[in-house]
Amino acid sequence: MNTSDRSTSSAWHERAGKVVPGGVSSPVRAFRAVGGDPVYFTSGEGAWVTDVDGNRYVDLVGSWGPMILGHAHPTVTSAVTDVVRHSSSFGAPTAAETLLAEEILRRVPVAERVRFVSSGTEATMTAIRLARAATGRDLIVKFVGCYHGHSDALLVQAGSGVMTLGLPNSPGVTAGAAGDTITVPYGDRAAVEAVFEQYPDRIAAVFTEAAPANMGVVPPPEGFNVFLREITAKFGSLFVFDEVMTGFRVGPGGWWMRYESGPAPDLFAYGKVIGGGYPLAAVAGSAAVMDQLAPLGPVYQAGTLSGNPVAATAGLTTLQQLDDAAYAHIDATAAEVLRIASDALTAAGVPHSPQRAGSLVSIYFTENPVRNMADASAQDEAAFGRFFHGMLDRGVSLPPSAYEAWFVSTAHDDEALSAIAAAAPDAAREAAAD
Ligand code: KE4
């Protein structure tokens, strides 16, 4: 499969760049980290996507996580079609929101309330405000390389597109906004303890990704999440567990319910999968904290399209397809994709570190295991870029950044795996050729 003629995509990108900054609606899509022009897709079906030049690819981006059932799943498409026939938004409550909230709480019984928003950024931004209101404190602690969306307070030494663009601290974030955010190396218990020793009564919350996947995939050190729960409780701070990436992807109740135990985080952020490919995210947690949100409590938060009935229907229908067999398939498929790519890179003599956290996988082009952003930044990004284009030219669409997770779906079958296995050896040899 040769998909190297992408001239129509390039023409669209030149046209887009005249009216949209960088020609994209989100920076990581621009291929700046890997070079070349982004691919413009016109359709997707299951594990496959088709671009404007008619090229077909196995999709390992999956819209960065939402497309857990693959593209154009008929049950989701049918449910959404039925809803939009009767309008798409009322700016009023709908049963769809309640049904989705009930499903989320059924899967995450340690949470008691859910508030819907339209993006993961809004979810974590709301979590900051709630934590500061609930504790009366200002400081937020986050980990270098963890990405929680682009609200000012969290866009400090973030991962994902920020790292890809080499913008560890984005211009436009004021000293005031960033000044209440403390960043520490991921996984560093001593650094966390030192921050609490320095500010024992000033930290509103500690934020972490359940399993960091915005610096590439870094499985949390054993017990680290429970350690964060314990130390925040000890000092009267909240623990905010960002499951925008992991939520309902790595298991029926997400990361905490599958892999952790003991007292739960105070707040969870969800997104991606719970919108089923439509704009919907959520903050969830204890009633004691969540019921401080207006109109019940004084903490203001709002949104024109929050809890949109089309998105809520898509999200609920998506979750309803995700049974134990689906999660078992996703786990096995993610592991197989990682094995195929790693075996090819090993055969080509390319130093690399395959890493996995649940069904989130990625490969670092460095032979040492990656435990934090400093380790991740040491990788050979150019080698990743050569591998990326080698795969793309052979019909496999990887995330266009060495600092992202690769995503599979329930639709990734033997045909998709065979296509990946066919592309990987030559792509790996291109990665090796410096
Ligand atoms: P959104 O605002 O993009 O919906 O969610 C922000 C967010 C919050 N928390 C975590 C753990 C996340 O991974 C994200 C967003 N993920 C990136 C992919 N690494 C979105 C892709 C993009 O920025 O275009």
Name a few traits of the molecule:
15 helices; Aspartate Aminotransferase, domain 2; Aspartate Aminotransferase, domain 1; alpha/beta; 4-stranded mixed sheet; binds ligand KE4; 13 strands; 434 residues; 2 domains
How would you describe this structure to a colleague?
- This protein is an alpha/beta fold and 434 residues long.
- It has helices at residues 7-16, 74-84, 95-107, 120-135, 160-164, 175-179, 189-198, 224-234, 254-259, 287-290, 309-321, 324-347, 373-377, 381-392, 414-432, and strands at 41-45, 48-51, 56-59, 113-117, 139-144, 181-185, 203-209, 238-242, 267-270, 281-285, 353-357, 360-364, 396-397.
- The protein folds into two domains: 7-60 and 323-432, Aspartate Aminotransferase, domain 1 (Alpha-Beta Complex); 74-321, 3-Layer(aba) Sandwich (Aspartate Aminotransferase, domain 2).
- The chain is built from 15 helices and 13 strands.
- A seven-stranded mixed β-sheet has the order 4-10-9-8-7-5-6, sandwiched between helices.
- Helix 3 (95-107) runs parallel beside helix 11.
- It is globular and about 60 Å long.
- It starts with 6 loop residues before the first helix and ends with a helix.
- The protein binds ligand KE4.
